[in-house]
User: Fold this.
Amino acid sequence: MKRRVVVTGLGCVTPLACEVDLLWQSILDGKSGIHPLTVIDTTRHKVRFGGDVANFDPGKTVEPKDIKRLDRFTLFAMYAGFHAVRDCGVDFSREDPFRCGAILGSGIGGLNEIEEQMFKMFSKGPDRVSPFTIPKMMLNAAGGNLAIQHGLKGPNFAVATACASSNNAMGDALKAIQYDEADIMLTGGTEAAITAMGVAGFSNMKALSTRNDAPEKASRPFDSDRDGFVLSEGCGVLIFEEYEHAKKRGARIYGEILGYGGSCDAGHITAPDEQGRGASRAMLNALRDANLAPSQIDYINAHGTSTPLGDKAETVAVKTVFGEAARTVALSSTKGHLGHALGASGSIEMILSVLSCYHDVIPPTINLDTADPDCDLDYTPNQPRQMRVKVAMNNSFGFGGHNATVICGKIS
Assistant:
């Protein structure tokens, strides 16, 4: 019999806030974290804005001597992980270390380090390449360093499925606890791909919005005037814990993780299936895993990236899965506020989905001003909605055709 899994800690790094309470309030207030980029020189770039975490300071979460030994995406994870652990109140020195682990997702990993060391190699020669290059750039650096920091000797690996990475990682963490491989898991995703090459690469493939004159209005999921996604960065770390274990130590419980499902479009390497067949299968698999009917979902935190094809395909997928209930379920995309943090987005949005159940509030989709006839569901435009949220669904779909859905709910 599967064991129950609950959420007992939350930590984040986002362009809006690096504190969960402040992030939540900023989302409800309709604030945007999108602005002219500060972490790179955009003089020669066609796209000059995004969701960088300006003036990020790892502070007391990492020893000063270690900061230069970690890529930005790992520093994000260390920061969010530290605050999630503090939030949940667990003392890992009193836990069996082999029953505690970390599974994190990242679509790209240490792109900052790759660029920096490639420049050194070609301009100054191979002897000038840092000996820390490989341990800084590798995708598993975030989870590995979290394990070292907190003494976690249980399941630990990285998941790389582009923008679905976080949800796939959380699904694996869920199973690790459900099937008695662990009692506590740090999970989520982290991404720091706002680099000169990252921005240029996404821009040249025509994936990004080009609204340089109005950055805060550029990410507009499901709006008829959307013209691409806004590149962002950040991290979300959640503490998944076995229910009885959490109760025994008197932990605060934000909610329960009820189900997970995944699939692959197996079509185009970047474009979604226009009929949303892979996305709908991921949602159906998650519903089956949670033993829920579509009509029992109160809220969907949509992938909703603000791309013309993606938002339409997700709408079609929701209609396929929910049937008549698609007209009554509340949806929103918080990427209007945060942009698209690629492999980290799912974890940040999972935090917001859990808080939606915890506080009984649907976060809005900002910048949704003009309805798209092809996107005709209830996307909670521009204003939050107070309503009973017993069960929420979180969708993430990524390049490569990867689809992943996680369902959470109130603890009962």
About this structure: The chain has a mean pLDDT of 97.
